[in-house]
Amino acid sequence: MKVQSSYSDIWRISWPIILSSLASTVINFTDVAFVSRLGEKELAASALGGVFYFLLIMIAVAIGIGSQILMARKAGEGQHALIGNIFDHSLLILLGFSFLMVTFVYQMIPAVMSLLVKDKEVVGFVIDYLNGRTWGLPFMTVFVAMRAFYTSITLTRIITYTTVLMMLLNVLFNYIFVFGGFGCTALGIYGSGIASAFAESAAAVYALVYALSRSMFKEFQLFKFKNISRKAFGQIMTLSTPIIVQHAFSMGSWFIFFLMIEKLGSRELAISNILRGVYMFLMTPVWGFSECCNSMVSNLLGQGKRSDVLPLSKKIMKFSLAITSVLVLLCILFQHVLFDLVSSDPLLNAEAKVSFYVICLATLVFSLTMIVIAGISGTGATAAAMKIEIISLLIYLSYVFTFTHLYPSTLEIVWLAEVFYWISLGLIGYAYLRSGKWIEKSKVYI
Fold it and tell me: What DSSP element (H or E) covers 211?
């Protein structure tokens, strides 16, 4: 479980995580593809509902990343039993968070959405989607915990199996619940939320069963819940809280981005939902490389190899840019096929294609920037990564507000905010990484 900063190790750890990221993207892609057949209002609603749910997931992922940094550090040090102790504490935190969020969605979301969205029909569809999807959140947080565990010990191939299962079941369940396949009752947009919840829950169960069948529960002392302490909770949250704030600001800003677009009209929001599906698909490889960077950096620090951090980050950046460039090129060449998969409305697809080139450019910048931020977090300097993100998000939201409210512009001009956001985030982050200030934050113990 001690990694080396080689291209072979980078690829061995990254590609299963890339496939796992693909599962989340395909779930979003599938939801958009099925819901777009229902109508423009439903498509607009799935944009808001999907982004809000993704915000909840990213907060859970932030907790997972905090525990993953600690577990990867112990893997580098060869302390297997402590990995299980960290896992148990993180799982308790994640489950507690999930139950709070489920309660919030069912009790508060109708009132919140009614205040934020002017189209009442869209509000109703957003609530329907979230009511269907949110009940699976506790299962999804278990999956987040298991994924953090597998990534920290570099046993990422299991993520491949859960990926395939999740993608196939989501397509099947969408067909059954959205359109009433196999004689079932058609549930519309509510059925799309149910389908995703079922698929994610099945993946969580499979990840647990796999660990049990390979005797990992015993080797790493998983689910023992021994030595539960405030100190352990505190150290996980010390690392996780800045990432939670970072993700909350990031995804919250993206949610605000869609709310601002909704002010331009429901059609612009529907077009942006198509773009969101394509954008998240283009981002897929980068999420895998960023998690790889996060875990490998922490593992190297556990081995005492601080001098390898920058060279490793640069190698992963090259890998990330190369793979993403190929994917962007393929999507440009086959854009007609891509858009036809996402939406059946040729007029919406045609209007989305100008902004499509903007998100292609944004994705290329993102492929470098996200590795820089992941490298900073992997050293344990999560507070610094949070501050860098907040500064960049203020620039981002100022731009979006300007071109949706002060000087309403075309959709592609609004989406150009993504390019400026990733450029500013990358430049500030790289300057911090080169400064060496992270070295003081790199000693993380539990």
Answer: helix 188-213
